[in-house]
Amino acid sequence: MVYRYLLFHKPYDVLCQFSPSDRPDQQTLKDYIDVPEVYPVGRLDRDSEGLLLLTNNGALQHRLCHPRFGHDRTYWVQVEREPTEAALQALRQGVQIQDYRTRPAKVQRLDDPQIPERDPPIRFRKTVPTAWLALTLQEGRNRQVRRMTAAVGHPTLRLIRAAIATHPDQPPLQLQGLAPGTWRDLTAIECRRLESLLR
């Protein structure tokens, strides 16, 4: 079997599935990707954007999604108000969300990333400033990043997955160079790095 590996820049308001939605006007991956039999490795919520890896290699899909293997995923997160150092430290140590505590995360302030405007744009309030964070996790529970920032008092306004690490000592797969709604095949070097995970 010939394996395919694609990177896609998922726009806002696109469902992370190929099957039709209940809403006829709802866009899905099928509106952007015409490669048969590839499926997303992990998911992004409808209101999240950014990097999505797709493949027809089921073993690799399992290897990258299983939390036991701890692959870093980096998100650019625009939040309400400027977080204090205490709020950032709480995110780094892990926060309590409902019935579980998140694993420690890497968190740092981020200069405004050079990214296209969202359509529709986020809500803007003159009296409430916003800030960007780079947040790196090794787990991906449902709406976890949004719940984490809300738990420390800074609701998420915009969420973009920027990178997916495959090896601790190799460069991650990155969003740079992919416009929203476009995809590319992985390079030969990127494919070899991915497939080496199964050896």
From TrEMBL:
InterPro entries reported in the protein's UniProt record: PsdUridine_s_RsuA/RluB/E/F_cat, PsdUridine_synth_cat_dom_sf, PsdUridine_synth_RsuA/RluA, PsdUridine_synth_RsuA/RluB/E/F, PsdUridine_synth_RsuA/RluB_CS, RsuA_PseudoU_synthase, TruA/RsuA/RluB/E/F_N
Record-annotated Pseudouridine synthase RsuA/RluA-like domain positions: 5-151
One record GO biological process: rRNA processing
Entries under SUPFAM superfamilies matching the protein: Pseudouridine synthase (SSF55120)
Enzyme Commission numbers on file: 5.4.99.-
GO molecular function, one term: RNA binding
Gene3D superfamilies the UniProt entry points to: Alpha-L RNA-binding motif (3.30.70.1560), Pseudouridine synthase I, catalytic domain, N-terminal subdomain (3.30.70.580)
Residues spanning the signal sequence: none
Cited Pfam families: PseudoU_synth_2
Annotated TM spans: none
Keywords annotated in UniProt: Isomerase
Family as reported in the entry's similarity comment: Belongs to the pseudouridine synthase RsuA family.
Protein name: Pseudouridine synthase
Species this chain originates from: Synechococcus elongatus (strain ATCC 33912 / PCC 7942 / FACHB-805) (Anacystis nidulans R2)
